[in-house]
Amino acid sequence: MKLAESWIEDTPTGVALEDFHDEVEEVDEVDEAEDGCGGVVWQPYVLRKPNTSNKQLHELAREVRGVEKRRGRRLTVSHYKRTFDRWAFASRQFLKPGHDYFTEFLAKLDCVMVPKGETLQAAFDRAKRREPPPKVLIVRNQGCAY
Questions:
Q1: Whose CA, among 28, 37, 129, 133, lies 20 to 30 Å from 51?
Q2: What is the mean pLDDT of the chain?
Q3: Is 132 among the domain residues?
Q4: Domain hosting residue 83, numbered range
Q5: 116 near 63, Cβ under 8 Å?
Q6: Which residues, 6+ apart, have CB-to-CB distance to 17 below 8 Å?
Q7: Dihedral (C-alpha) 22, 24, 30, 34: value to the nearest 10 degrees?
Q8: 92 located within any domain
Q9: To which H or E segment does residue 64 belong?
Q10: What is the Cα Rg of the chain in Å?
Q11: Alpha carbons 67 and 28: distance in angstroms, whole number
């Protein structure tokens, strides 16, 4: 980069560039250590009424996949378990006893097609690859009569 190179050339010789560091270092592991969930925001998916676990678990799985996509790597099983445990504890009044919600959550992780935050982009990408529906083509060929 020309701009960066010119800045370095103009730096006084008394400044040691290799020792330069920001005041606050950003480390992904710090966030993970604080909550143990790998940065997954699980609170919005806590159950607020009965018979909503299917949808909320799916949305939680999409959130997890979105975090993984942004990080560029998968979370560990222990991250999945801690995230789920916190979700389950907060949702406990609406969970059915004896039902294995963790296995259901893991299955939903495998089923996620589009991570959270990428729905519109994914739809746009699919639309670009497909032929428009015949109804649209007919209207386009006839011109708009509006």
A1: 37
A2: 76
A3: no
A4: 37-115
A5: yes
A6: 8, 11
A7: -170
A8: yes
A9: helix 53-71
A10: 24
A11: 12
Mean pLDDT value across residues 3-28:
46
pTM value? 0.60
Which of 75-84, 97-106, 136-145 has the weakest average pLDDT? Answer: 136-145
Task: Identify the pLDDT of residue 130.
Answer: 84
Burial of 59 (0-12, 13-18, 19+ CB in 10 A): middle
Question: Strand, helix or coil at 75?
Answer: coil
Domain count across the chain = 1
Residue 22 lies in a domain: no
Query: Residue 82: phi, psi to the nearest 5?
Result: -65, -40
Q: Is 143 a domain residue?
A: no
Is 63:19 a contact under the CB 8 Å cutoff? no
Q: Which two tokens stand for residue 138?
A: 């007919």
How far apart are the C-alpha atoms of 48 and 76, rounded to whole Å? 28
Rounded to whole angstroms, the Cα distance separating 86 from 43 reads 9
Side chain identity, residue 84: F
End-to-end CA distance of the chain: 52
